[in-house]
Amino acid sequence: MSSGAELVLQLHRRRGRINEVVLQGRRPPWVGDLLRGSAAGYVPGRMRLLFGVCGEAQATAARAALAGAGVQRGGGAGVQEHPGVLLEWIREHLWRLGLCLPRQLLKGTPAGLSEANRALRGVMCAVGDDIRGRDAAVNRLESALFEIVGTSVLADSADVDSWLDCCDSEVAAALRWVRDEVPQGFGVASLPSLEPAGLRAVGDCLQGSRDLAVWPLDPRDEAGESGTAQAGLRETGPFARQRANPALQGVLARHGPGILPRLLAAVLELLVLPGRLRNALRAIGVEPVSEEVGQVTGTGCGIVDTARGLLLHWVRLHRGQVADYAVVAPTEWNFHPRGVLVSGLRERPGGGPAEGVRRLAELAVLALNPCVGSRVEVH
């Protein structure tokens, strides 16, 4: 999302528990308001300008949405395995696990973080090289990431337990703190994983209501017929993708679907992403770029998997110009007013000094990794 957006999480306590959780969001203007009337061919480039944090993912989703609307674009890597998207994916996991988490819990950062950032920039510069040059750049990045995590593989629960108990990396130390210090049940909540088919259905609904507090819910819920206040809500992101991973099962059994498994899921992805990036760079092609799309009229959806989860772009074209446009980011699911974050905090332990509760809530927010700024208030 662009600047100006913010999430405000308000926790209200009573008798040592968090009895009310209010999540408010301030969003920038709808993308449709900014793009309406633009020539379709200019949209991907403008997405890079509007969304600085994940500009390549936004541009890739825009291209896919335009293709769905009838704009013909060929070549290039598959949507999910686009090298630029994977680089952003690695960067976001590295930022969260290698910088934000250790700084928040340990008041320090890994010694190898600078090397990893240099290696990441090296891969970006090597995209135009031959396969050998690309592989060498990715190998350097992979080694730097393994150094920061403190291991090259976490294949099962035994590996995870040994890593958490014995590894001296800052990432392992931070997750060890979460394991040992976060109260049992704090942040624990389970929602079904968001699937692309379900996200396409949301795209179809975007022609109607734009109220983000309503659209993900089963319409029957408003009439009290569905039997649950969370009908239609989903989780997306690393935990949703990795929840069946054997390496997560031991932690899940002991701690439930809370802060630790969500952070561990991002660690598991960070270890395998360089391999996926290597394959995507080997398959890279030249994607034709054209700003002339003719008089196309139609609607289309584009879906891209990103570090934070599934991203949806929806477009309606009229004679080659944008008549309407909408973006549904992963944050809109994970930080829905009745979503997984709020469910994991309501009726959880909240006694003691407000600062301690705020710190735990900030950790729950970081485990879900919003794409906008956030603020926690404890009352």
Can you walk through the features of this model?
It comes from Alkalilimnicola ehrlichii (strain ATCC BAA-1101 / DSM 17681 / MLHE-1). With 379 residues, this protein is of the alpha+beta class. Helix content is 47%, strand content 13%. It has 15 helices and six strands. A three-stranded mixed beta sheet has the order 2-1-6, with helices on one face. A three-stranded antiparallel beta sheet has the order 3-4-5. The radius of gyration is 21 Å and the shape is globular.
Give me some keywords for this one:
15 helices, 13% strand, NiFe/NiFeSe_hydrgnase_LSU, nickel, three-stranded mixed sheet, 6 strands, 379 residues, alpha+beta, three-stranded antiparallel sheet
If you compute it from the alpha carbons, what radius of gyration comes out, rounded to the nearest whole angstrom? 21 Å
Strand content: 5-15%
* Mean of pLDDT: 85
Largest sheet: number of strands, sense, barrel closure: 3 strands, mixed
Number of strands: 6
User: How many H/I helices?
Assistant: 15
The sequence of SSEs as H and E is EEHHHHHHHHHHHHEEEHHHE
- State the share of residues found in helices, binned by percent: 40-55%
**Could you tell me how far the N terminus lies from the C terminus, measured between alpha carbons in angstroms?**
29 Å
Going by helix content, strand content and strand pairing, the class is alpha+beta
- Low-pLDDT regions: 74-80, 211-215, 217-230
Shape: globular
Strand line-up across the major sheet:
2-1-6
GO molecular function: nickel cation binding
Binding site for Mg(2+): 327
Keywords: Magnesium, Metal-binding, Nickel
Binding site for Ni(2+): 371
